[in-house]
Amino acid sequence: MQLAESLSNLIEHAGKSAVGKVLPSEAACVQHFHVSRPTVRQAMHHLTRSGLVVRQKGRGTFVAPRLRHEMTHGFEGEMKAAKRSVQLRLLDWQRVRAPETVRCALQLEAHEDVWHLRRLRKVDGIPVGLEERYFPDALGKRISSHYAESEPMLVLLKKATGEHSAQLHAEVTSGLADTELARVLGTKAGVPVLVKNLTYLFHGKPLAYGCTTFLSQYYQFRFSVNLPI
Questions:
Q1: What residue ranges of the chain have pLDDT lower than 70?
Q2: Nearest to residue 24, comparing CAs of 125, 35, 15?
Q3: What are the start-end ranges of the H helices in 16-58?
Q4: How many CB atoms lie within 10 A of CB 87?
Q5: CA–CA separation, 99 vs 71, rounded Å?
Q6: For residue 183, what pLDDT is reported?
Q7: Which position among 57, 112, 133, 147 has the lowest Cβ density within 10 Å, counted as fewest Cβ atoms?
Q8: How many other β-carbons are positioned within 10 Å of the β-carbon of residue 93?
Q9: Paired residues of 115 in beta bridges
């Protein structure tokens, strides 16, 4: 715990400049701190569980990003303002039969198709979450594969609808990563995740639905509201 605290203090003191930097190897830590290898491993395990570092097989241990997201702002825009680099990797963009939950959320008829968007989201090169969105067929046809691959969600909606504002219904739940999600995010099955279920409405009509699943060790969300007293 003393070693973990020392490393944690160094990371916190370095601030944003430490994000993405590789930590010394176990052997280097053993030599520098004059402790045993099992002690170093336990300290690194503690830092990993606390979300300060991420261990990548074959590459080493890196300082993890800490994502503080104001829910009233777009994620990519807020990360850019914080001088963080966001990368999107397209995993799926195709027309599919609407699953029942999606059909109900978008108020579609049973025979209607939707467009399915699935993207891996990275911050500073580290996988932090998985996007999954559904669009009605008419709206999805207006979104090119190029935009689906590269543009943030709010930009996609603006280009497809011509609207400059939307109403958002959000629900955040907790869960555990299954085998497929763990594979995509490069982590272990069973790690905690946060799921943001989102419905975008224009003039009261739902025109996009889906969720973003984040590894909870990286992600913090916040929002401000006025409450009657």
A1: 15-17, 19, 50-51, 57, 65-73, 82
A2: 35
A3: 26-33, 37-49
A4: 14
A5: 27
A6: 92
A7: 57
A8: 18
A9: 95, 135
